[in-house]
Amino acid sequence: MYKSILTLLLWFPLIAWSQNDTQPATWDVSAGKFEEIESFFNVYLEDTRKMDWDKVLDKTHPGLIKLTTREQMKSQLDQALNNYLYTTTFDEMRFNQISKSIVFNDVYYYQIDYYSAFTFHFIKDEKQTQEEHDNYVSFMTSIFANQFSDMRVTQNVSDIRIEGDKKILLIEDASLDGMKMLELKPEFQMFLNLIIPEIVVNEFLKS
User: Fold this and answer.
1) Distances (CA, A) of 9 to 2, 19, 50, 56
2) Is residue 167 domain-resident?
3) Which of 19, 71, 148, 170 has its CA 20 to 30 A from that of 31?
4) What distance lies between CA 144 and its chain's CA centroid?
5) Where does residue 81 rank: exposed (0-12), middle (13-18), buried (19+ CB within 10 A)?
6) Is there a domain that residue 160 lies in?
7) Contacts with 130 (C-beta within 8 Å, 6 or more apart), sequence order
């Protein structure tokens, strides 16, 4: 009986560690780590404002880039934000807080809440009448209001401004080259599950 108890005591730390490693654990972010993350994220926001896609992609989880090529992704970002229909400006981007932090299998995950405001500046086609152009911008305002339902969408003549609070997932994984990020939205859940453990995704997306 004594030997059985001794064996259990010797194995208990390993058992406890194994059990903890099957579930994400929350933890407190130190002041130093908070400053490091805030600084990193502010650089990311500035890279985004400048549309420096190489630097933005350097900070993006490689699992996303593997779905296409780096050059294709840069081209898609350029085309999505600046084309013959409109140009885009990032008016304001502001770090707010780290609202959740967990560790799972020695990988650290942080939910960053931030504020974002950007504007689409629609270009009138020379073949359009002013009325046609105005109607088109109004139509796109309703489209964006549906697409960005969690944000505020306003129209000012030919400009459509979108603003509100957003979330991003910052990942600190020793196997990756520095901190990496992924946008955190419920509609991206299936995609996120392909890149990071589903149990982690569920922790951040649960209501």
Assistant:
1) 11, 15, 58, 49
2) yes
3) 19
4) 19
5) middle
6) yes
7) 124
| pLDDT above 50 (res 9) | no
Average the pLDDT over 51-76 and give the result: 90
Q: Indicate the number of domains in the chain.
A: 1
Residue 198 pLDDT > 70: yes
Distance CA 72, CA 50 (A): 19
Q: How far apart are CA 139 and CA 8, in angstroms?
A: 69
Taking the mean position of all CA atoms in its chain, how far away is CA 180? 10
pTM listed for this prediction: 0.84
Tell which residue, 172, 185, 159, has the closest CA to residue 61.
Answer: 172
Distance CA 194, CA 190 (A): 7
Question: Of all residues in the chain, what percent carry a pLDDT higher than 70?
Answer: 89
Domain assignment present for residue 8? The answer is: no
In this prediction, residue 123 carries a pLDDT of: 97
Structural domain for 111, as ranges? 25-205
